[in-house]
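P.,

For your records, the input lines for the assembly:
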Amino acid sequence: MTDALAEKAATPRDVLTGSAPLADESEGMSYLQSLPRQLVTVYLPLSLILFVLLFPFYWMALTSVKPDEQLLDLETYSPFWTWNPTLKHVYKLLFETDYPTWLWNTMLVAICATALSIIASVLAAYAIVRLRYKGAQWVGGAIFLAYLVPPSILFIPLSTVVFQYGLFDTPFALILTYPTILIPFSTWLLMGYFKTIPFELEECALIDGASRWQILTRIVLPLAVPGLISAFIFCFTLCWNEFIYALTFISSTQYKTVPVAIVTALVDGDIYRWGSLMAGAMIGSLPLVILYAFFVEHYVSAMTGAVKE
Amino acid sequence: MAIALDSRPMRDVTAWNQLKTNRNWLAIWFMLPAAAFLILFLAYPLGLGVWLSFTDARLGRDGIFVGFENYEYLWEDSIFWLSVFNTLLYTSVASIIKFAVGLYLALLLNERLPFKAIIRAVVLIPFIVPTVLSAIAFWWLFDPQFSIISWSLKKMGLITANIDFLGDVWNARWSVIFANIWRGVPFVAITLLAGLQTVSPSLYEAATIDGATTWQRFRYITYPLLTPIIAVVMTFSVLFTFTDFQLIWVMTRGGPVNATHLMATFSYQRAIMSGYLGEGAAISTAMIPFLLGAILVSWFGLQRRKWQQGESND
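C-alpha cells returned:
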C-alpha cells in the first residue's frame, strides 16, 4: 500500500500551493474544527514561529537604513521603526569599500562553478542511469557518499592540494573546488529526473540512428529542463553560501567573496559599523532571495529531490 | 536494403567505432569530468587528510611521518575534549529541537490556511539566505550593549541588566544553538511537509470514524508513514550540524574561552591560524567516525524505506 502512496508523491508545486488533489481532500475534515479552536491550535503557533523566522530579516533591513545616532540610542527613539531612513550605509558600502568587487567575485565564482558542475553532472547522471555500464550502481552509491563528505573535514588537505596545483589565492581555487560539493548533489538530483524520462524515446532515437550524444542533447536534456533549473539554482545558492573554502584559499582582499569579505574586511572595529554591515548582509542576500522568489517550486523540488531516493 | 547491409564489410567496426558505441567505453567518456573533479579535489584530499594527521606538517612545510603523535597530543589536550563535548551538545540539542519544531511546523503548514503558498515560500527564506549573512544579523541581535532582545526584555520588566549573550559560556552556547535551529527548521519543515502530503487523507478519515484522537492519528498514521523521510532528513541535519563552521566562526570564533569551539572551528584554528596542519588534520580525521555513524543511520533508513516499498521500487 505504501507503494501506491509513494507513486502519488506530491510534486513541488503541490508542496507549496497545496493544490494536489490529495491535499484538497485532506482539507475535507477540517470543517470539524471551529474557528476559535483553529486560532489557538494553528494560527497562534504559526504566527509565533513565522515571527521568529522573519524578525532577523526585518532587523537587518531596518538597521541598514537607520541613521547612526538612532542605531545606538535605544531610549530617545523607538528602536522598532525609523521615520528618517537613510541610504548612507548603502552608499558607504558601495562607494567607499570594495563591496562591488566582492559581489562580482561571488557572482563569477558561483556561475563558473555551477556551470562546470552541471555539465559534469549531466554527463555522469546520464551515464549512470541510461548507459548502465558495469558497476553503474556502485558509482551511484559512491556519488551519494561523496555528497555526505562535508567541506569542514576537507579544507585542511585541500588547502595543501590547492597550493600544490598553484591555485592558491586565485578565483580558480574556488571555481575548481566548489564542484566537489555541487557535483554529487546535482548528479543525484538529475539521476532522479532522467529516470522519469521514458526509455522508449531513446530506443526510437537509437533505431533512427542517433548517437548517444545526440540523444542526450536533443531528447533527454530538453525533457529534463525543470531538473536542470532546480540543479542550477540550488548549486548557485550553495556556492553563494560557501564560506570555509573561500576563507581558507583566498587571502587577498580583491579576490574575496561576499560572505568572507564581510566577516574579515568589513568588520573593522568601528562603533558605527553596524549600519553598513547589515546593508552588506542585505545586499549580499538579495540576489538569492530574488532568484528564490522566481523559482520557489524548483528550490523545493531540489531540496526534496535531494532527500528522496 | 538487405544487399546493402550484406555488402558492408566487417572491418567497419574499428577501434574508434568501438570507443564511440561500446557502452562501457562510452560511459568512461561520460563519467570523466565528474570523476576528475571528485578524484582530484575530493577523494585525494580525503586520503591526504588522513595521511597528514600522521605527520608533523606545518603550513608551507611538508611533514614527516610521526605515527600517532598528533592523536596522543590531542588525547591530552583539554581544549580538544571541550570541543568534542561542545560539538556533541550542539549537534544533539540543535537536532532534537530542529526535528520537533520542524515537524510541528510541517503539520501546521499542512492545515488549511489562507495565503498558504506565500506562507510556505516565506518559511524557507532563512534557509536561502547565506548562513554567514544571517549569522551577522544574529551577532547584531546578540550584541552585549545594543541587543534588541535585551532591550525588549528590559522594557517588559523581565530583566534588569543587559544579557551578555555571546560573552558568557553557557549563554554563548545557547545563542549559537538557537541561531543554528533558526536556520535548520525551514529545511526540516519543508522536506517533512513534502512527505506529509503523500499520506492519503482517507487513512485519517477511517481512523477518525474508528474514534482515533488527534494524537493517535499522528502516532499511528502520520509518524509510521513519515519514518523513512524523517530518517533521511535527520541524517542530513545531524551531518551538517555536526560539521558546522560558519555560524560559530562568525558569531563567536569559538570563544568565550573556547566554550563554543566545535571540532571544525577548532581544527581551523589549529591548522590554518596556528599553522599546525598535522594536528588540524588529526582533529578533522577524528570527526570521520561520527560521520560514518550518521551515514549508517541514513543507509538503514533508506533500506527500511526499500523494505516498506518492495525491492523492485527503484
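Two observations worth noting. The longest helix of chain A spans residues 99-131. The radius of gyration of chain A is 24 Å.

Regards
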